[in-house]
Amino acid sequence: MSVEFSSLHNGTNWILTNIYAPCTYEGKRVFLDWFKNIIMPEDVNWLIVGDFNLIRSPEDRNKLGADVNEMFLFNEAISELNLVEIPLHGKRFMWSNKQFPPLLERLDWFFTSPAWTSCFPNTTATSLVMETSDHSPSESVQDKAKVISSNSRA
Question: Residue 14: beta bridge partners?
């Protein structure tokens, strides 16, 4: 889902896309094909956040067993869209299967367009405390003003 915003402060327009990607093998393939083919003009301030149900590298998981092909396809889509990853501050993993011992993964991601990065160079993403969900809530902040807060499924 995408929503276009216009700042009352300075008139800047930007688009927020919230992702909740499928978790099945086939669903991920269909999602990645759709995602990498999004056409967004280069001059658009675009913030893409959400639960992609994908990892970018083996380090995004605390156990062996990640699908390397999925990582490749996800990174290929990010590259095709020319997206910039917003570094995550706080917890390394934002999802847990809540079992013992837990499987921990980074499935929630924050990306921007190069235009966004030029307009809002101080954008950060921070994980918050996980209380009831299997995902940690998070927020994205630009120049000390909260842009978006994401409380993943409770």
Answer: 5
